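User: Here's a protein and a ligand (coenzyme A). What would the complex look like?
Assistant: Let me lay out the input and then the predicted complex.
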Amino acid sequence: MSEREVRPARGPDVAAIEAIWHACLREGAWEGVTRADVERDIGDVAEDPAGTIVVLEDGVVVGSLTTRTNDLSVAPGSRRRGHGRALLDAAVAQAGTRGEPYVLLYVPGGGDPPRHTPARSFAVATGMTYRATLTRMRRDGLGGLLELPAPPGVLLRPLGPDVDLEAYVSLINASFASHPTWFHVDTETVARAHAAPSFEADGIALVAPEDRQGAPVGFVRTYAEADDAGVAVGVVGHVGVLPGWRGRGLGRVLVRWALRRFAAQGLDRAELSVVAANADALHLYESEGFVTVVAWPQWSKDVPSAG
Ligand SMILES: CC(C)(COP(=O)(O)OP(=O)(O)OC[C@H]1O[C@@H](n2cnc3c(N)ncnc32)[C@H](O)[C@@H]1OP(=O)(O)O)[C@@H](O)C(=O)NCCC(=O)NCCS
C-alpha cells in the first residue's frame, strides 16, 4: 500500500507542481488556458508556497490545489487513487478554519452540447455544485481611444506610495462583497504582491472624492504579460467600485484609463476575466470593445456549517 500525505506546499515542491500543470496543459485538460497563464500562476505559488496544498504519494508530489487560482490537478499517472478527493477535503477544512464559505475550482467541461470530462465526473462524485462561469474577454486594437474624464468632484490617480494599504484592501473587499463568487484579499497578501519585483505600482489607479483623497471609492489593477507567442498583452486584473458609487460611470472611467495606459505602453491587445453572471460588468466590457474568448465553469464545495 502506498502512503499518502497531504500538506501545505513548500518551496522545493514548486518544480513538481509546475510539471503537473504542464502535463495537464499538454493533455488538453484545461481549455483556453495558456502556457503564459501557467507561468504566471506558478510564479504566485513560488511567492507563497503555503497557499497551495499538495498531495504526496510515497514522498513524491503527485497533485496540488491552489484556491487563489481555483486549480486542482493530479499527475496523469496518479489519478483514480483518491488524491483529488484528499486535496479537496483538505482545502474544505482549511477554508473552514479561515471562515471562507466554500472552495471554488475550475471544472473543465460542460457547455452546449455538454463536454464530458474527468473533472466533471470528479466534481459530481465529490458533491460539488456548479456556481458560475468565468469568461476570458479580449480586445484587439487599442489605438485612438479618447480619455474619459472622471465625473465632477471625483479624481483619478495612480496608487502612490502614500496610499494607505488598509484602505485599499477594504476598498477591494467592499467592492467584491456582492460578487457572484466569493472574493476576499487580506493586507498581508496584497503587501506581499506589492513587494514582488514584477509589481507595477503605476498599474493601479484609484478614484476618490476630491475632498476625501484618502478614502478611494473605486480601483483598477492592470499589468502587462507576455502571451504564448511572446507578445506583450495588457491585463485588467480587477476593477471595483463601491456599491454606493456605482452607476456614475466610474467603472468605465477606470477601464478606459487601463486601455489608454496599455496603448501608451505600445500594447495592442487587452484581456480580462469576468464572471458571466456579473451582467453589469459584462456589459461594460462589451461596450468597451471586449469579446468573449473562452468560458471556464467554476464549481464549489461548501464548507459544512459549524451548527
Ligand atoms: C479531476 C482530477 C483532479 C481528479 O483527480 P483524481 O485524483 O483522479 O480523483 P479521485 O481519485 O480522488 O476521484 C474521486 C472520484 O471522482 C470520480 N472521477 C475522477 N476521475 C474520473 C474519471 N476520469 N471518470 C469518471 N469518474 C471520475 C470518481 O467517482 C472518483 O471516485 P472512484 O475512483 O472511487 O470511482 C484529475 O483528473 C485531473 O487532474 N484532471 C486534469 C486537471 C483538471 O481537469 N482539473 C480540474 C479539477 S476539478
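Summary: Residues 24, 29, 72-74, 79-85, 105-108, 118-119, 121-123, 125-126 surround coenzyme A (CB under 6 Å).
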